[in-house]
Write a structure and sequence with these properties.
Chain lengths: ~375, ~350
């Protein structure tokens, strides 16, 4: 077939903070892009096309900001594509950039994703009334808390599992120089003592609201030859509607389908054994066991056991979010690309203090909307 | 070996000044998708990849495209993506997807309910938010500045502009704007943003468009005369209006060159202002022999985020055997971003 091999040549990200008042939106993107280009040992001259992703434009109050960012992101005179697939967008943007290479369109593509959430109140921007629906009006936490309660009821998971994830992710975040929240001293007790926001989700089990950006340089086989690269073994995207009778919002079919396609295309038959590290989109701690099941790492109802056993820590059987994940930094539009980029950094051996020893195969995962948009990729140290 | 991709179906919602439907576009999309699929005897289960183009700002609400997925009935789940841009760029993404070999069909849709807000002010939010946006130069005013620069440079006259309008308004009885009118009559009408008169500006339109793509191999079985996409190219320019030569369109020139856009018999240009059609025609080197905007073009109906895709669909359905057509789409203030799609009838 026509499919060309594609690989990650470099990854860059900003220091994520609640307010990056020191930079404009363009400056924020550029900080990530400059690091990605340096990581790839390339310059803007080497880039054929730019793909930009971010979540709703209402977050910053700029309509289609990729247009006004054309100079800052090095797109002027080149093809520029803007992706928006809700919270999964950072992952989708990387996947679209990969498809530009898989399809033989370009040799080197720059993917960039950002969110500058301090420009507005993101939680409420997410809660604008939808026609014909009762407004939830409670932000993302209020929307997802019933899903978490349902998961606990269905799986019989003990109540402290969510707090365990929070402790692990925040301690991992402390090893990541770019993370927004770096809390090496966090404990199970301190998480369980934090304020209850949306029962059963406590303050410390919730992602922060961050300003940040991520950039990934992708290249074709020629561009990747003879250098350290994260080869893309498979990508997958799936979507289902927000609401319909009988929809399983805890373990959505779209996520299951995307994962099944991902493992099939990557030639992975036993993901728990074959994957060395995974960066999953976990904005509320309980989503770690939920996604472990949804992606098929374990059977339904068993995810919390893997988490509770400590096997998802760095050094465990399947380290989840060694970077600290969304629980440690959440510039929404960039969060998915951070997952994809961190997965690439793991197999390139460039994850620094949060490197998983010997990581050869890693997964990046993102979801969005009401758990209805999924994007994923598998990257490996070797050519597929 | 690259995979050839063809357009096998096109449908669009009626272009109207105002619909009573939601800003999600669902009411416009459901019958339009059905029409596009029925025409080639396919159902949603036959579609390998879906890609849409729309704008949250036009809808006035975050994630407006999510509710549009309801128009599909996306369960079992679908392989899908979305661009925050005119759906011509969604078609580009879908075209690339088919060329990766992962899928052999794709449905592309775009929708926009411009009547939901004040379009010319909404579009001002595309400008640099630090130095330009706060001045609120609206979309018509910026186009007016561009038209004035061209007039002063002798690149076009107000009569040239009115001729474009007269031709566009008389082109298509089914379009939102249809009237037989003389150039002199148009020139007697008042300015809305000197030197632009009302007829120099695209109307406010609610609408949607759907295009179905298939590999050239599958296309032969799906329709009588597929329109093969020989190339699609797009480029963006700086957003800094003062740094651009607004009387030229280097991004269009570069895209057309890369797309080998020559020997064109028919062109559908996405020019929301009369002077922009003249400018694009110059940039593309389209002579008098080229049939231009037989659909009436955006000046006769301009559904935001669907109009560029509709240009590609309109060109595909009008293509005659042995001919080459060019479809163009634009995005951003004063033709900042431009896409050129070249079609051939096999």
């Amino acid at each position: 077939m026509a499919k060309q091999r594609a690989a990650v040549l470099g990854v860059g990200q900003t220091h994520h903070r609640s307010k990056r008042l020191d930079v404009t939106i363009g400056g924020l993107c550029r900080e990530a892009i400059d690091r990605a280009l340096a990581d790839a040992e390339l310059t803007f001259d080497d880039i054929d096309a730019v793909v930009l992703g971010k979540a709703p434009d209402l977050f910053e109050g700029v309509m289609m900001p990729e247009l006004m960012l054309a100079d800052a992101i090095g797109a002027t005179g080149k093809p520029l594509l803007r992706v928006h697939t809700a919270g999964s967008v950072g992952g989708s943007t990387a996947n679209v950039a990969a498809s530009l290479i898989h399809g033989g369109e370009h040799s080197r593509v720059l993917a960039v994703a950002f969110e500058k959430q301090s420009e507005s109140n993101a939680m409420w921007a997410l809660s604008i009334a939808v026609p014909f629906h009762m407004p939830v009006g409670a932000g993302a936490g209020g929307y997802f808390a019933p899903h978490v309660r349902s998961y606990i009821r269905r799986s019989g998971a003990p109540k402290h599992v969510g707090a365990l994830v929070a402790v692990k992710d925040r301690r991992n975040g402390a090893k990541n120089q770019y993370a927004h929240l770096r809390q090496p001293d966090i404990t199970l007790e301190s998480v369980q003592a934090s304020a209850m926001l949306w029962d059963p989700i406590r303050y410390d089990e919730t992602c922060p609201s961050s300003d940040g950006a991520c950039a990934i340089v992708l290249g074709d086989e020629n561009a990747a030859q003879g250098r350290t690269a994260a080869w893309i073994h498979a990508t997958a995207m799936r979507t289902e509607p927000t609401t319909f009778a009988g929809r399983d919002q805890v373990n959505p079919q779209a996520g299951k389908d995307a994962a099944a396609a991902l493992w099939r295309d990557a030639g992975i038959t036993d993901p728990l054994s074959q994957v060395d590290a995974a960066e999953l989109y976990v904005p509320f701690s309980w989503f770690e066991p939920m996604w472990l099941e949804n992606l098929g790492f374990v059977e339904e109802g068993q995810g919390w056991k893997l988490t509770e056993s400590g096997e998802t820590e760095i050094g465990g059987r399947l380290p989840i979010n060694p970077s600290g994940g969304v629980m440690s930094s959440n510039p929404i539009g960039a969060s998915g690309m951070l997952r994809f980029g961190e997965a690439a950094m793991q197999v390139m051996g460039r994850a620094g203090e949060h490197q998983v020893d010997g990581a050869r195969i890693a997964v990046g995962h993102a979801y969005g909307g009401g758990s209805q948009y999924f994007s994923m990729w598998v990257v490996g140290a070797e050519k597929p | 070996m690259s995979i050839d991709v063809s357009i096998v179906s096109f449908a669009q919602a009626p272009n109207v000044r105002e619909t009573h439907g939601t800003t999600n576009g669902v009411e416009m999309l459901v019958p339009t998708m059905k029409e596009a699929l029925d025409r080639i005897g396919l159902s949603k289960k036959d579609i390998g990849f879906w890609c849409s183009g729309s704008s949250d700002y036009l809808a006035g609400r975050a994630f407006s495209f999510i509710a549009a997925v309801d128009a599909i009935g996306a369960f079992p789940p679908i392989h899908e993506s979305h661009v925050e841009a005119d759906a011509a760029w969604a078609l580009y993404e879908a075209w690339v997807k088919i060329r990766t070999g992962e899928v052999d069909t794709a449905l592309v849709y775009g929708f926009g309910k411009s009547s939901a807000g004040q379009l010319r002010r909404v579009l001002a939010l595309q400008l640099d938010p630090y130095t330009v946006g706060p001045l609120w130069p609206d979309a018509v005013s910026i186009a007016g500045l561009q038209a004035r620069l061209g007039l002063d440079a002798g690149l076009w006259t107000e009569r040239d502009m009115a001729e474009v309008a007269a031709r566009s308004r008389a082109a298509n009885p089914a379009a939102q704007i249809y009237e037989q009118v003389t150039v002199d009559e148009l020139l007697g009408r008042p300015y809305v943003a000197d030197p632009l008169r009302k007829h120099d500006c695209a109307p406010i339109t609610d609408g949607a468009a759907v295009v179905v793509l298939a590999t050239a191999d599958r296309a032969k079985d799906l329709c009588e005369q597929p329109a093969r996409i020989t190339s699609i190219q797009h480029r963006v320019e700086s957003a800094s209006l003062g740094a651009r030569d607004l009387t030229a369109s280097p991004s269009t020139v570069a895209a057309a060159k890369a797309a080998n856009a020559d020997g064109i018999a028919l062109a559908e240009l996405h020019a929301p202002f009369t002077h922009q059609e003249i400018l694009l025609r110059q940039a593309l080197g389209l002579g008098d022999e080229v049939v231009l905007n037989p659909s009436g073009g955006p000046l006769a109906g301009n559904p935001m985020f669907a109009a560029g895709l509709a240009r590609i669909g309109e060109a595909a359905t009008r293509l005659k055997p042995g001919e080459r057509a060019l479809a163009h789409a634009t995005s951003g203030p004063a033709l900042q971003q431009n896409l050129v799609c070249v079609l051939e009838a096999d």
